[in-house]
Amino acid sequence: MQIPFNAWHDAILKRRSIRQYAAKPVEAAALEAMRRACTEFRPFPSARAVLVADPTEDIFRGIPGGYGKVSGAPALVAFVGNMESPDVQEALGYTGEGIILEATALGLATCWVGGFFSPKRAAAIAQVAPSERVLAVTPVGYPKEGSSLQERAMSRFGRNWQRRPVSELVTGLKDNERPDWMKTALEAARLAPSAMNRQPWRFHVDRNSITVSADSVLNPTMVVSKRLDCGIAMLHVEIGALAGGVRGTWDLLKTPQVARFKVAA
Length: 265
Ligand SMILES: Cc1cc2nc3c(=O)[nH]c(=O)nc-3n(C[C@H](O)[C@H](O)[C@H](O)COP(=O)(O)O)c2cc1C
Known about the structure:
Distance between the termini: 21 Å
Shape: globular
Number of strands: 9
Bound molecules: flavin mononucleotide
CATH architecture of the largest domain: 3-Layer(aba) Sandwich
């Protein structure tokens, strides 16, 4: 599936994490479009998304704490990674964010949830293979009316939407030396969601490439890998570049770097 970059670029600007859902089923056409996106958006062999249209179990049930408490979602998507692949985390971030942006474009609310769900229950309902794990999920549905205040109060990270400025994230070419497509790509990357809004991605830019790295040592025991956050930012970089008229390809790199976007010749 080609990246529908205009729709997904708009979605980047609109998307917010929503944790409380109205008791309203997802409309059939939107559900069908989500099912198609989950099947067709498979940019990496090691990551896939599984739509669970009518979850029989509440995988968020019994999870303590306010942060991450999702309630009332009529559907969900499980993000499934093949743990035998060394690129599973960034592949999953990139793939999952495509599904999140497609949902946003369809008028559906979502929230990446990496820590506060039951991976065992999710694995059972998404029917994963022995080499696979559900690394994250998103509820899918419509926001509960009047819950935005509650959303804010619920989150320990009150100003969820706040992001660092590009100047704190980017090294290499100076701002006035960057081509327009690159500015659009970096602005899109800056708006990416990340676990606990930690914004771990850093970008080194030269004339024809953007290299994505993580801000500190990547600890493989962390509940949510920073490489997953970086995979999300990779998709945002590419969408921004495409919206700015530039196609490119990715090379995956070794830790602490994650990947380099190179303008196609
Ligand atoms: C990989 C990942 C994992 C996340 N895990 C959780 C989670 O377990 N619980 C939760 O409430 N939010 C979770 N979030 C949502 C972030 O807190 C949210 O994206 C961030 O605060 C930015 O807010 P925004 O999405 O509204 O822009 C996660 C986000 C990402 C990208």
